[in-house]
Design a protein that fits this description.
Oligomer: heterodimer
Low-confidence stretches of chain A: 224-275
Low-confidence stretches of chain B: none
Number of domains of chain B: 2
Structural class of chain B: alpha+beta
Order of helices and strands of chain A: EEEHEEHEHHHEHEHEEEE
Number of domains of chain A: 2
Number of helices of chain A: 7
Number of helices of chain B: 11
Strand order of the largest sheet of chain B: 2-3-1-4
CATH class of the largest domain in chain A: Alpha Beta
Strand content of chain B: 5-15%
Helix content of chain A: 25-40%
Largest sheet of chain A: 6 strands, mixed
Radius of gyration of chain B: 31 Å
Number of strands of chain B: 4
Number of strands of chain A: 12
Mean pLDDT of chain B: 82
Helix content of chain B: over 70%
CATH topology of the largest domain in chain A: Rossmann fold
Amino acid sequence: MIDFVNVSKIYPNGTHALENVSLSIDKGEFVFIVGASGAGKSTFLKLIMHEETPTSGEIIINGNKLSKLKRRDIPYLRRHMGIVFQDFRLIEKMTVFDNVAFAMRAVGESGATIKKRVPYVLSLVGLQDKMKNKPSELSGGEQQRVSLARALVNNPEIIVADEPTGNVDPELSHEIIELLNEINSMGTTVLVVTHEHELVREFHQRVITIDRGKVIADNQKSGSAGYGDDVYSEYDDYEITDDEPADNYGGDAYDDDDDYGELPQYPDNVVIVPD
Amino acid sequence: MKGFGYLIKEGFKNVWSNRIMSIASVCVLISCLVLTGSAALFSMNVSKLVDEVGESNETVVYIKDGYSQLEAVYVGKEIEKVDNVQSATFFSKEEAFEQYRDTLGDSLFARIEDRNPLPDSFIIVMDDLSKYEETVAEIQKIEGVDPDTILNRKDFADKMTRISNLVSVISIAVVAALLIISLFIIANTIRATMYSRRFEISIMKSVGATNAFVRMPFLVEGMVLGLISAVISTGLLALVYNGIGLVIENAQSIFDFIPYTSVLPYVLAAFIVFGIFVGFCGSFMSIRKYLKMEGNEILGW
């Protein structure tokens, strides 16, 4: 479904965001993408969404080479994907219903279809009773579920979630991933970028680890052995040896501009240790 | 396009939610339209006047001071002998005085009644107006004719045409400048709307809205601004035109203005086409930039 063949991305400022990445994600898979801030995760998602184009290499989605994609066809590629953002990106002045309906209107769906489909999708995420509420009246977890409903409403084949639990309470993070898991069980491919390793461990799914633009680990889904139990898990955490804040780890809020800046160098007081 | 009604509605909503900038755009566009309309109507009236004058081939010849009416009649006989003169009708200074008094009112003339300053004159009709210059030159040679005071409405028509041309040139310059300002202001208004809706634009693009779809509400907004300006301008021009017409007609009644009602449909149609065109172009200019951007670039993050 998604194939990266020797993909590299160098930004105009010289930052090597991705280097020679090759991987393949099959239809119906659930994949966690993990890595430190500035590792290249966001670039990875932008390349999939065709917000950025690779400097070299080829990306193939549903058998279509993105390098051959015409500009006018980009929107149709994106209709195969639903995007979930860390900061929800809900429109404050619109109700929950309208926020979800907005995604359908944007692709030109008729009013009758919208009226039927939106309540159904909101019921899938458990928000059928909050349709008339404004986003500001909802909790962080609920807002993210609205964002998820919006991503789902056009029936995409792929859900791309960029740090979906970054702005919700830890106890609700599990709930969001669980919801994504359920969506995945219905056949939708799900890509989740996250830095919450505990969460990743719980869900025994495929985990791709990116570090400094390279895929350094790709541990396939396994029934019993979860993330953290196998050979690649040594990269999944960093131990901090003194009081230095762990900002470079990516555990802080939003790291969107990470691909544009210099790749972080781990300070001397950070050592990578096996679990 | 599916969801067309929704897009139109969004366009109208944009105008309202961004009303301060909308009012600014409409005001500038109105100035542009009213000035263009005024210049066009002025030209139309001048053409009408020139046509009317051209159709009448009467020329007035004044007789020098000190000539008695009898002597003047002899001068008239000489004038009639000139080639191309069809007729020369005597118009006494008393008749001229009466005519002016009727036109301009009694009060002005009451004080000078006993010393009429006007000369005797002949109204000459020519056979062939193309020989006008030669004929006038011949008449000027006649003893008793005041050569400097041959009054010719054709001269007047020529003068008016020159003024009209000058007004056209100035109008074109002013309208061109206003057009550029209008485009700039509308483009800025739309840019402000796009900025305030950049969040929505980024979401639209991320869910796969086509550029045509993203563009539509903003084009509608620009065109609505153009349409509003066109309608207001048509009304405003009526006030200006009828006001000026009234002042001029009160001062002298020799010329009938083209009535505004007869040109109203054309003015309205032209304004609507022009207004919508400017609105469309202004919007189009600002949207291009946004459509080239992706994701967080749109949000400026």
